[in-house]
Amino acid sequence: MKPHLSPTRRLLVLLAATTLMTLFIAGPPLAASPTAQVNVKLSGTMQPDGDVDRTAISPDSRYVVFRADAETEQAFELFSAPTTGQSPPARLSGYLMTYASVGFFVISPDSRRVVYSAPQDNTDVSDLYVVPIGGGTPLKLNTPLAPGGDVIYFQISPDAARVVYSADQQTDEVYEIFSVPIGGGVVTRLNGPLTVGGNVQVFAISPDGARVVYQADQQTDQVSELYSVPIAGGPATRLNGPLTAGGSVYYGFAISPDAARVVYQADQQTDGVIELYSVPIGGGPVTKLNSLLSVGGNVDDFVISPDAARVVYRADQQTDGVVELYSVPIGGGPVTRLNGPLTAGGDVQGYAISPDAARVVYRADQQRDDASELYSVPIGGGAIIKLNSLLPAGGNVADFVISPDAARVVYLADQRTDEVRELFSVPLGGGPVTQLNGPLTVGGNVYNPEISPDAARVVYQADQQTNDVWEFFSVPISGGPVTRLNGPLTVGGAIDNATISPDSARVAYVGDQETDDQFELFVTFDESLLHPPVFIPLVRR
User: Fold this and answer.
1) What whole-number distance in Å separates Cα of residue 229 and Cα of residue 162?
2) Is 80 exceeded by the pLDDT of residue 53?
3) Report field, pTM of the whole predicted structure over 0.85
């Protein structure tokens, strides 16, 4: 399985001391010279058949949390280790029986705690626990579950104050949502009373942490509707408009980044015709966002812009079966088609809004059917720019990522040779295209590019040096020397997944680097980070 890498940033830390401020100067992130890279194993000593299979780095970049059957085969427990590699891993979860494993885990936004689900107290029941990230005694958060009940999903609020979870806590196979302080305390049911057969299907916490939006067949069995409730409990408000007979709210609603509105899809007016709607998060007038659809047309998907001003969506709005790209103000207004005229058989296949909310990048076979290319256009409509270079016969742009500073687009394409996927970088508004990856071995390809949050470098996976031996590499986003991030691999070894730290200084990765078929956790960073920090006084004026 090709891993998906998490994005990161580099951190300059300001330290205050009495009347003097000092600046910690760290080494350059993801150094360009292979000789500067240091690789440290974080997972420690594991039982012979043990493997690390899931990882996450804390928002402050200080810890890696990972799941591994380090002590008992097929009992995947939870551990944390400092990203410096200067101390051994600490156990976070309680001891589990064979085949009883930690399921889902999340690090709190303040980096202080880890919340996880596990059959820790009862091998047949998944409960919810919280534990300090450096280790300690786990605390159970949920109240006793109904016989057969389980916690199936949870989220931590952005302010790290509360945990909202889904469970059949009161009645087996009746899933409801509950809220609890992250340090433990009174558990509050958030959803309203459910009709017979009803369940809460999905929920999300608003970016300001004030409300929870959830989807449920609360009033009528198998008729999904949308509700909003204060995160600590209170009256639930129905958000969607009245539904036509047979209508439902579809999966995939989104809360705007400013926590003011909810956008959702539903066949609200005509059964079987999925349209796009916007409503205030606390309830109020519902506005349809899409224009009149063609006969057979539907809204496929949508994204809210980072500034919460617009919604970009795909729909076969003008011609049934021809999916195009549109932009509309989030509160309703004129709809603008973003893509250019499509060739016969053409469609828009994928898209993303730039972090500054200025432009939309999309993939489409706009000029040639079955030849996906990359385009950039202002979010409100305007001149369209093709970003990729000329493709060979059979060539396609397969995937792309926009840099966090909205300056560049990194994309994967068999741009030089059909069926040889390589990595390229181009300015967001168009310009010279630069190949990023190093020369590939025969049969080699590039996968899974991720851009560091400081927008300085790209990390990618490739069998660049040996066919079918997957390794990780780093390169400046505008091109330059390529660095291999992993250490030398044992015979048969490969790198399975990697995560870049939020400060852009380190990459944690999982691979059977030292022992074939034993996947362990490693971190790589510039050796200058091992040196004592340099403190430069800053004089206040």
Assistant:
1) 14
2) yes
3) yes
